């Protein structure tokens, strides 16, 4: 399986900003993925869910 174009863009930006929580704008929302989503969901007390991203497993995701 190949990564979706959105997830490729997210990972390119995240690679350049490893020490930050990346709030990735999608439409009217900001979403966090993988470890950022896990951290943000705990710290902000928001629901952790998943998103299809082109991998076998769904990527952990949360959004505001």
Structure characterization notes:
With 64 residues, the protein is α+β, with helices and mostly antiparallel strands. It has one domain: DNA repair protein MutS, domain I (MutS, DNA mismatch repair protein, domain I, 3-Layer(aba) Sandwich), CATH 3.40.1170.10. It contains 2 helices and 4 strands. Strands 1-2-4-3 form a 4-stranded antiparallel β-sheet. Strand 1 (24-26) and strand 2 (29-33) form a beta hairpin. The protein is globular, with a radius of gyration of 11 Å.
Give me some keywords for this one.
globular; 2 helices; 4 strands; 64 residues; 36% helix; alpha+beta; MutS, DNA mismatch repair protein, domain I
What percentage of amino acids are in beta strands? 25-35%
Compute the number of structural domains: 1
CATH class: Alpha Beta
Spans where pLDDT lies below 50 across 5 or more residues: none
CATH architecture: 3-Layer(aba) Sandwich
CATH topology: MutS, DNA mismatch repair protein, domain I
What gyration radius follows from the Cα positions, in whole Å? Answer: 11 Å
């Amino acid at each position: 399986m190949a990564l979706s174009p959105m997830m490729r863009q997210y990972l390119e930006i995240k690679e350049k900003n490893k020490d930050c929580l990346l709030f990735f704008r999608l439409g009217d929302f900001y979403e966090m993925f993988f470890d950022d989503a896990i951290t943000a969901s705990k710290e902000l007390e928001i629901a952790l869910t998943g998103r299809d991203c082109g991998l076998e497993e769904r990527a952990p995701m949360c959004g505001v």
